[in-house]
Amino acid sequence: MGAAGLAAPVIALLACGDESGSEGEGAAPEALRRITDPVLRAFADDAVHVVAPMSDSPIAYISQRPRRIFVDLDFRDRTVGVLAAHISVSTGHWRIPQPGDPLTEPLTPGVPEREFEELRIDEWDVDMEPGEGDVRIRLGRASDVALDFACTPMEGQPFSCSGGLWLIRQCDRSSAGTCREDFVEVGVGTRHPGSECTDAGASARFLTWVCPDR
Fold it and tell me: 29 falls in which pLDDT band (50, 70, 90)?
């Protein structure tokens, strides 16, 4: 995510190796959308990307590493509102609050972590691997998702993974609205060598797109 540590892990319920209880622990309610066979890609030596395919493009994408925001101009004003952002009159740069920033405080200039150069959304590389802390704005409304998988092969890698149950929220395009998703760690699971998952394997962080609490 390039910007490790920008966002704390979201809800991690019943993560592999986690024996502590948590509110909501147990089988996911039937009404939840369940992901039991996700696409998994290597993200880092100790991390796996749980791919959340989109049927439509985001209306904005915030890339933390190069400090850029790619925006669909038809939704520019809406994006400003969702991000609680301020656009500098002098530079045209967006000032975007980062996780942990009080939204009641003014976005003063001169804080590099909050400053982003604006580009058009068609300049964004849709095949670019997200960085930790990246943000995307999508049409739709946040809805609950249960992420739970066992011995799922990794794409292009000699490993299989198990993780969950993690209850998260992601944008649901079938409902009207606009929502934000952050690319963050959702929990710690297991990466097994090979496809049989008979080996105990090793711990790995799992990251995907999640609607934040705020």
Answer: low
Residues 6+ apart with CB under 8 A from 32: 144, 145, 146, 167
Q: List the domain range (segments joined by +) for residue 94.
A: 60-123
Q: Same domain for 170 and 200?
A: yes
Instruction: Report d(CA 93, CA 88) in Å as an integer.
Output: 5
| pLDDT digits 0-9 by tens, 135-194 | 999 999 999 999 999 999 999 999 999 999 999 999 998 888 999 999 999 999 999 999
Q: Are residues 95 and 74 in the same domain?
A: yes
Q: How far apart are CA 141 and CA 164, in angstroms?
A: 23
Number of domains the chain contains: 2
Tokens representing 132 are: 């930790």
Token representation of residue 47: 């991390």
What are the CA-CA distances from residue 115 to residues 77, 81, 99 (Å)? 17, 16, 14
Q: Answer with the one of 123, 150, 177 that is the final residue of a domain.
A: 123
Beta bridge partner(s), residue 51: 39
